[in-house]
Amino acid sequence: MAHLQDRLASEELGELGVRAEVRGGAVLVTGTVPSARCRDDVLEVVREELGGLEVHCDILVTEPSSPDHAEELS
């Protein structure tokens, strides 16, 4: 598990607030990431490090989007 935390803290994934907790025969991955691609990268690392454990993902994707209307100022 320590090696997984090191990998999640390194490289481009290091800026993310992602946590992984082993519970029984499964791992729960939580946090917030900026894109679906980033979520997929995190899950790939988890599966590589903890092969054989079931992975449960509770990662929120907060992709920035353009406003759909003008802001009214008063």
Verbal overview:
Helix content is 30%, strand content 28%. The protein has 74 residues and is α+β, with helices and mostly antiparallel strands. It has one domain: Histidine-containing Protein, Chain: A (2-Layer Sandwich). A 3-stranded mixed beta sheet has the order 1-2-3, covered by helices on one side. Strand 1 and strand 2 form a beta hairpin. The longest helix has 14 residues. The chain is elongated, with a radius of gyration of 16 Å. The mean pLDDT is 83.
Keywords summarizing the entry:
alpha+beta
What's the total helix number? 2
- Please tell me the overall pLDDT: 83
Q: Which CATH-level-2 architecture?
A: 2-Layer Sandwich
Identify the strand order in the major beta sheet.
1-2-3
Count of all domains: 1
Structural class: alpha+beta
Number of strands: 3
Annotated CATH topology: Histidine-containing Protein, Chain: A
- The CATH class turns out to be Alpha Beta
Question: Radius of gyration over alpha carbons?
Answer: 16 Å
Overall geometry comes to elongated
Distance between the termini: 53 Å
The helicity comes to 25-40%
